[in-house]
Amino acid sequence: QVQLVESGGGLVQPGGSLRLSCAVSGSVFSINVMAWSRQAPGNQRELVAAITSGGSTNYADSVKGRFTISRDNAKNTVYLQMNTLKPEDTAVYYCNAAIRRMGTYWGQGTQVTVSL
After folding, report:
1. How far is 30 from 92, CA to CA, in rounded Å?
2. Minimal CB count within 10 Å: which of 8, 62, 71, 103?
3. Mean pLDDT of 88-96
4. CB 39 within 8 A of CB 94
5. 8, 28, 1: which is closest to 97 by C-alpha?
6. DSSP 22
7. What confidence score (pLDDT) does residue 50 get?
8. What letter would DSSP give residue 61?
């Protein structure tokens, strides 16, 4: 059974930083794309950042210059470094992975709250 385990969420003050991680476990051979999405109360879920197996990245305009997505293919892990956090970044952040010949899987979500 494929499982995505997220960590790193929590409460942080505006201007602070957090690093989220997501490790994919199970019988996984190749992960094509890994991504982070978020959903704030009353909002639709939106793509925050994505990274391909080759290292190409894409970011939402709202986080460009502040967030960095990276991956460690040997560990089947994706990271999201979040700097200069703003209250509007508050949301549940979800990791997902498109696994070759298997499908797309999602993590359980981790709460990020940016507040004084």
Report:
1. 26
2. 103
3. 98
4. yes
5. 28
6. E
7. 98
8. T
Distance CA(51)–CA(26), nearest Å, equals 20
Q: Which residue in the block uniquely carries the two structure tokens 């507040």?
A: 115
pLDDT at 30: 87
Contact criterion met (CB below 8 Å) for 99 and 31: yes
pLDDT tens per residue, range 10-55: 999 999 999 999 999 988 888 999 999 999 999 999 999 999 999 9
Spatial separation of the C-alpha atoms in residues 6 and 79, rounded to whole Å: 9
**83 pLDDT more than 90:** yes
Extract the tokens encoding 40: 């704030």
